Amino acid sequence: MAVAQRTEKDREEGPETLGQQQLLRYTSTLTLNRVKPLEAGQYSLMVHNKAGWNNVTFELTLR
What we know:
- This protein is mainly beta.
- It has one domain (2-60).
- Helix content is 10%, strand content 51%.
- The model is unreliable at 1-14 (pLDDT under 50).
């Protein structure tokens, strides 16, 4: 199950603008049964939509 939520601060302030880019901050919880402790860390991937290509970077932490 994945749960996405924006923090109260983000709701009040909205997205931060960095030049032409917007920095969107949010927290998601996702249960991954097969992730190993060595796989924790920062990941980046390229995504594409109508606006074009962009990088998405996220941190994977394990509990």
